[in-house]
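---------- Forwarded message ----------

FYI, see the DUF1330 domain-containing protein record below. Original note from H. follows.
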Amino acid sequence: MAIDPTGADLKAFLAQDVDEPVTMLNLLRFGGGGRARYDEYIAHFRRTSVPYGAEVVYYGYGHAPVVAESGQDWDAVLLVRYPSRRAFSEMVRDPEYQKGTHLRSEALVEAVLQPTSEVAAE
């Protein structure tokens, strides 16, 4: 299973509302030793994402699910708000950010990276 976005993934991502805010939902499954490795990645992410306006909204570890089919439980959940899809794309191309992406790749055996948009309150 792919855990990192490809060029084609980013192209499709940028084809939609490139300047609108986006919150990325990350569902994460760790490999052996992955939790500590991912925590290292989060520290790197917090340092290198600042110029792009990224904001970690929530990062937490998963527990036994209340309702889920087999295999649908996750080790961690991360929500990151970006001012735009363009900002996300620029960040992932930044050489300083890329220096730490190996930590993410080494930590994970499975991931979902789902863009979301906020529903306006009525």
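H. also flagged this: The chain has one domain: 7-64+72-116.
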